Amino acid sequence: MIVTGAWLLMLCASKTMAQYSDHRNRRIDSLETVLASQTPPQGKQLLSAYLDLMWGYLQTDGAKSSLYARKAVALSYEIDGLNARADALRILGLISYGDNDYDTALSYFNHALAVTDSMKLYRQYKESDIDDNYSALYGSIANVYNMQDKALLAIEYYQKALLIFEKYGWHESMCILYYNVGELHLSMGNNKEAERNYLLAVEQGKIADDSLLVAMPHNGLAKIFISQNDYAKALAAVNALRTYYYSHKDEEPASYLETIAHEAELDLMEGHEDIIQAQQLIDQALAGINDDLGSETRSTVYSAAASVAMKRGLWKQALEYATMAKDTDPDETYSDVENYEQLAVIYAQLGNQKEASHYVSKLRQSMERFATEHYQSSISQMEVQYQTLQKEQEIEQLTQEKRWLTWGTMLAGVILVLLLALLFFVIRWNALRRKHHEILARMEGEAEERVRIGRDLHDRMGALLTGIKLNLELFVKNNQDTQSKENALQLTDEAMTEMRNLAHHLMPDSLKRYGLKTAISNFCQTIPSVSFSFIGTEKRIEKRKEEALYYLVHELVNNAAKNAQARHIAVQLIMQPDYTALNVSDDGKGMPAEEESLRFGMESIGHRVKAIGGQLDIDSKPGEGTEVNIEIKE
Predict the structure, then answer these.
(1) What is the pLDDT of residues 561-580, one digit of tens each?
(2) Could you give the CA distance from residue 227 to residue 216 in angstroms, rounded to a whole number?
(3) Contact in structure between 298 and 328 (CB atoms under 8 Å)
(4) How far is CA 393 from the centre of its chain?
């Protein structure tokens, strides 16, 4: 996992992140005085005071922040303040996040998401306010998954937040998000993706014209280019760091010390060695170390100090600093791989075969862990294994120089097993990928065909119906038949409306972008006699199942309204972790057994439900309405 200090919290805590809202500036003392007065505020003013106090105390007094957040949640039910409730739930999630209670934090954040979903049903809430809530909550959830070492889930939610930032042009927020994603990839050793995201962060920081946001990603870029022994790029990154942090060392002491450590590492690079200057720089950085600094900063400085000592051949001193770098940060990231390599080389030089062997083993285990748990594709896994092979070969050569022939043989055997396992994985993965692409191609073809049909209905039928309307107007006008004219115009308008609805609902944008719940809800709102309800936790299911359920709702509602002559139709969607269910019930005339057309229609529905692996249950009696249940197991 990664720790990015205040910047990580900013991504999940800020309300409209682009504004850099610093809630500690709110006048909490005066607000508490007003609440304790004889005439305290009431209603919305009281709710606003609770919100200001919960934000104001967030950084300084978690207990008070939690107290006012809970008061805000309770009051929001009395005055129907959905936005305030989502805000307060997010604060409670942030407090749990700060206490390392990640499961509770996720519970609060998901509750806030559900409240934000319900805001879309009320016109009083602007789209930008709703999107602002979503972006902050997506960032919050991503940070939790980040701290839980669930890198892929974290990146998924960061990307959801990014879509909203791009929509509104929130460049500061995009910069911070790209920076956090870059840090995440760097912690996994995926330097290529880390570099790409850092550069995007720099670009957004320049657009926002914020010198701090421009400087931040260069710290990660410096680490990457130093590790790649690319002096020119590393020097450019360090110069960018020096420009900002040398003039802001009091405000940013941690980044200032890390900049000095990077400068020392530059002086160790081949062809540009200046050992004396490197030692002076690292002495300066070590002098600034204190307990108030984060573990990541201390680990960076100690690791650089170990590199300087190794270059000078001071192996005992190098061991001391490398050990301090390892012990400083308890969370395992990809940077620990470099630390294990340092320790293995140092112990080998000191002649301690047992400890050198121990860190060679930890080096291999760490590389395997990041290969199997974090990387998103077999290509990334192959890169990790290749890096592991390179580093182990370097250690093997060193052990051969120390005549560790036995260990070298064992290591070669392990490498062979890893390569065989990797080969099997690549073959299997390629086969699954081909099959997956074939399925996707078929589904995309079906979707494109629906879009084409919808376009044709709109373009051709629209023009045809418009022509019919104009001819009927002329015909009726010539015959002076006023009632026929009104009837003809009304029927034509209804036909055009029906055509537009059909063209829109063949493949609604809401189903593709937001999922089944939103799409069904939007459809039900267009028909006065239909109500919609939702139970469970919203989730995305397989695309073809979402489409099938959406069109089944259309057909069932249409059957109930036209054939069963129902006055009210209830549509209910249930989403649970292990199944998704759809219930459509009406108060119509039911389905008499002798109506062949109705039986045939239900048989068609049954075939489609079976095609997506679902179960269909129909309960209908003449004169008592109809209830249809569809359930799909995950």
Answers:
(1) 878 888 899 999 999 999 99
(2) 18
(3) yes
(4) 38
**Residue 562 neighbours by CB under 8 Å, 6+ apart:** none
pLDDT digits (tens, 9 = 90+) for 273-311: 899 998 999 999 899 888 888 788 888 899 889 899 998
CB 298 within 8 Å of CB 289? yes
CB within 8 Å of 266: residues ≥ 6 apart: 226, 231, 234, 235, 238, 272
Beta bridge partners of 531: 570
Cβ burial 560-587 (10 Å sphere, 16+ → b, else e): bbebbebeebbbbbebeeeebbbbbbbb
Of 137, 93, 131, nearest in space to 113 by CA: 137
Q: What are the phi and psi torsion angles at 313 (to 5°)?
A: 80, 15
CA distance 583 to 630: 6
Average pLDDT in the 377-381 region? 37
Query: What is the H or E stretch that residue 536 is in?
Result: strand 530-536
Burial of 516 (0-12, 13-18, 19+ CB in 10 A): buried
Mean pLDDT rounded to a whole number for the chain: 78
For residue 243, pLDDT beyond 80 = yes
pLDDT band with cut points at 50, 70 and 90 for residue 559: confident
Count CB neighbours of 144 within 10 A.
24
Cα–Cα distance measured from residue 127 to residue 290, given in angstroms and rounded to the nearest whole number: 46
Q: Which residue has the higher pLDDT, 596 or 411?
A: 411
DSSP H or E stretch at residue 260: helix 253-266
**Lowest-pLDDT choice from 68-82, 92-106, 198-212, 581-595:** 581-595
Query: How, if at all, do strands 530-536 and 569-576 pair?
Result: parallel
Buried b (16+ CB within 10 A) or exposed e, 27-64: ebeebbeeeeeeeeeeeeebbebbbbbbbbbbeeebeb
Distance CA 553, CA 558 (A): 8
8 Å CB contact between 306 and 277: no
* Beta bridge partners of residue 532, listed in sequence order: 571
Q: Among candidates 566, 441, 465, 445, which has minimal Cα distance to 507?
A: 445
Query: Residues 34, 41: contact at Cβ < 8 Å?
Result: yes
